[in-house]
Backbone:
């Protein structure tokens, strides 16, 4: 076996392995096991993805960086280029503000098909207030919960069945929208281009 062939085969195997842990669809993301290989090494993963030209790994590895790295590690580390450091910090700011607010909107929206509107609305507002109380406790030494992970478990809401199913739907739609937007949030090409790139590299 030639050296070139071996290197290509190895590269492809590494890419396939990485692509499982850093998927391009929300469904795959939601079904990842709790423990991932190289967990907590998102900065190194993003650097490797850049080196290998595996851009489809970047949206989720940048997302993981935002989840598990403090600003100082992103800024002072030598894993990322200056441009990618800016992409990460810009993305992080967006996720913590607009991104989180959009995902939490299901706790504010009035749902018209409801016969106990006042009670349901009050219950949603109570939960929203609790969430905002948590969000007020900013701590630079603690990781913020990222919007895709907010309310993955059903909220303990005292609402009617109609409101409950509508809330779940609005929440899931907002997560989906955020996922679709993830590459743009980090200054990357859209999923369609990234997935075409992935298909080409892994064929
Ligand atoms: Zn209701």
Residues:
């Amino acid at each position: 076996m030639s050296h070139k062939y071996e290197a290509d085969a190895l590269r492809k195997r590494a890419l396939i392995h990485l692509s499982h842990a850093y998927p391009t669809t929300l469904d795959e993301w939601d079904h990842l096991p709790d423990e991932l290989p190289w967990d907590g090494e998102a900065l190194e993963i993003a650097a490797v993805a850049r080196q290998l030209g595996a851009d489809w790994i970047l949206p989720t590895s940048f997302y993981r960086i935002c989840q598990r790295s403090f600003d100082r590690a992103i800024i002072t580390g030598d894993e990322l280029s200056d441009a990618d450091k800016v992409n990460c910090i810009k993305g992080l700011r967006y996720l913590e503000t607009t991104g989180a607010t959009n995902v939490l909107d299901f706790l504010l929206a009035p749902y018209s098909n409801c016969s106990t509107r006042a009670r349901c609305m009050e219950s949603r507002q109570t939960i929203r207030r609790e969430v905002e109380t948590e969000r007020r406790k900013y701590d630079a030494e603690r990781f913020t919960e990222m919007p895709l992970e907010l309310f993955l478990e059903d909220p303990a809401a005292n609402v009617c069945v109609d409101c409950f199913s509508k809330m779940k739907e609005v929440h899931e739609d907002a997560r989906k929208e955020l996922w679709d937007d993830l590459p743009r949030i980090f200054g990357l090409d859209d999923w369609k281009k990234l997935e075409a790139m992935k298909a080409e590299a892994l064929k």
Observations:
- Residues 147 and 194 are 22 Å apart (CA to CA).
- Residues 111, 114, 116, 120, 159-160, 162-163 surround zinc ion (CB under 6 Å).
- The mean pLDDT is 91.
